[in-house]
Amino acid sequence: MKKWASILITGLTLSLLFGVMPSFASDFESASSDTIVFPYERKTFIEGEKSVSFRLRNATTKTPYLMQASVEKLDEDTGVNTLESTDNFPFMITPPLYKLEPGQRYDWRVMFVGDTAKMPSDRETVYIAKFRAIPPSIPNTEEKKDSAEFDAIQALHFKVYYRPKNLESLTFEEAQKKLSFRREGNELIVMNNSPIYLSFDSVNVGGKEINSNELFKPLKPLSEQRFKLPSDINGNQVKWAILDDLVLPMEEQVSTLQ
């Protein structure tokens, strides 16, 4: 059974990135009238495949959304923002525009259009699949004042990972064994010696939880990532858990600061 998540559509931009909102990984579809619903799972494109798909459902009863899809570059220092880029991305989303009617489901395809020879062969690469939900404009009338619908443009961001064929069989269990931890001042430095991206569900250092906003940051392959620590931390024990490909927390691990 697939995991489904329901996001309340508001006037804010929603960054729905793998490893950011683990509480959405549950078996339900919201009955709320103002939601976009989707299966919450890691989207990994294996070298040689043609595409991966994103299924979105308009759970509203009366509001159609014009969905505008595009590929963008992730700011890997924050794990939330996207970066301006003039690069030609190796992925494209089709269709780029689609009207999603109330109650309708639709599958978008994220297709590889790049050159595999130009992609890193020793690690994963990440991109953002961005979906802008544009509602119809509601005239400025008494009807609009009484309406619960919104006429702001919303944005949904999903990570898409490109994985080289030679890394296809690598598991999260194997990858998490290659994490190491050290402290520099008020920062926790995590070294990911594995070739794939990992995301934390939780991190506890010296008995204190790291702020959940810090956990938006991805653990980049073969790289370090820095996390701000709470004040007055004592001890060198780190308790942590990684999210799996269904965005569920794996078994908690215990490490010692180096």
TrEMBL record:
GO biological process: cell wall organization
Originating species: Providencia rustigianii DSM 4541
Similarity comment text for this entry: Belongs to the periplasmic pilus chaperone family.
Presence of keyword Chaperone: yes
Signal peptide: 1-25
Subcellular location: Periplasm
Domain of life: Bacteria
UniProt keyword terms in alphabetical order: Chaperone, Periplasm, Signal
InterPro entries given in the database record: Ig-like_fold (IPR013783), PapD-like_sf (IPR008962), Periplasmic_pilus_chap (IPR050643), Pili_assmbl_chap_C_dom_sf (IPR036316), Pili_assmbl_chaperone_bac (IPR001829), Pili_assmbl_chaperone_C (IPR016148), Pili_assmbl_chaperone_N (IPR016147)
A cellular component annotation (GO) from this entry: outer membrane-bounded periplasmic space
Stretches assigned to the Pili assembly chaperone N-terminal domain: 45-167
The protein's name: Gram-negative pili assembly chaperone domain protein
